[in-house]
Amino acid sequence: MGNYIVKRLMTIIPIFLFATLLTFGMIHLSPVDPAEAYLTAAHIQPTDEILAQKRQEFGLDQPLLVQYVNAVIQISQLDFGVSYVTNKPVWEEVSSRIPATIQLTVGSLIIAILISVPIGFLAGLKKNSGIDHFSRFLSFFGASIPSFWFGYLLIFFFSVRLDLFPVEGIGTWKHLVLPSLTLALPLIALYTRLLRASVLENLQEPYVLYARARGLHERVIMGKYLLRVAISPMITGLGMNLGILMTGAIIVEAVFSWPGFGRYFIEAIFNRDVPVIQCYVLLSAGLFLISNLVVDLIQMYIDPRISRKGRQLR
């Protein structure tokens, strides 16, 4: 296990460096001049003299290789520069908003798991039953409806009409319910479908037949053996969607005026705040890499066959 973690970490480093190189290249290939964007955000009329001064201050007059190396060194120290709008360190601005996005992400994951696991598992066990038809309807509904429209529907019914939950902002658990449910709906559709298909497939596996031949109780077979193996694709999907949740909460945060990282990113795009955009992209890439590593480790713990296959390949 330790060797596997070290090998995966060694592969993460070059991938992340490639992400920094790609982000660096896109910024410099963009028609937006960072020095001009800074002056525009500061409401300063850009002249040739001031632009040359700012380019020198930002190090944009240096060779591209030197700029890239300096950027990697700064990023390794969590130094993403200074925001063009607030004139404050980007990491300070981001770190103050990340907890709100994490809170929203965790809330949506909890809702998605609590709903999708029982529905998907029962739908796989009882094919073509009422719960199975409901699971398929839920999957189609969740995959089809846009998140922003579903969010506005929740606001209209539960906030405007019934006055049960706040419309916007953050503070109490009531503020978290509607945005978390909005963000969780696509995950519920995906996880329900994945778990149902996995249960149907694993019901035909030999280990289920052997467990029944040994005289084990059906509940033990379903809970201890079948669910543990069938949930594996769902965990894989969870790892792939964790980064999407953190970065894809942009629309939900905008609809519910949630003061998170995604909303801050939208403002940065409109203001052409290059350091904030760069920070967002690189943090998203790092989150995807780490979440996939964590999911692989969980998969090896849940399904020992994965670790055995890895030893055989070596």
Automatic annotation (TrEMBL):
GO terms for cellular component: plasma membrane. The keyword Ribonucleoprotein does not apply. InterPro entries: BPD_transp_1_N, MetI-like, MetI-like_sf, Nickel_NikB, Opp2B. Residues 98-299 form the ABC transmembrane type-1 domain. It is a multi-pass membrane protein. It is found in: Cell membrane. Signal peptide: none annotated. Keywords: Cell membrane, Ion transport, Membrane, Nickel, Nickel transport, Transmembrane, Transmembrane helix, Transport. One of its GO terms (molecular function) is nickel cation transmembrane transporter activity. Its main location: membrane. The chain crosses the membrane at residues 12-29, 102-125, 137-160, 172-191, 225-252, 280-302. The complex is composed of two ATP-binding proteins (NikD and NikE), two transmembrane proteins (NikB and NikC) and a solute-binding protein (NikA). Belongs to the binding-protein-dependent transport system permease family. OppBC subfamily. PANTHER family: DIPEPTIDE TRANSPORT SYSTEM PERMEASE PROTEIN DPPB-RELATED (PTHR43163). NCBIfam families: nickel_nikB (TIGR02789), Opp2B (NF045470). This is Nickel import system permease protein NikB. It comes from Salipaludibacillus agaradhaerens (Bacillus agaradhaerens). The lineage of its organism: Bacteria, Bacillati, Bacillota, Bacilli, Bacillales.
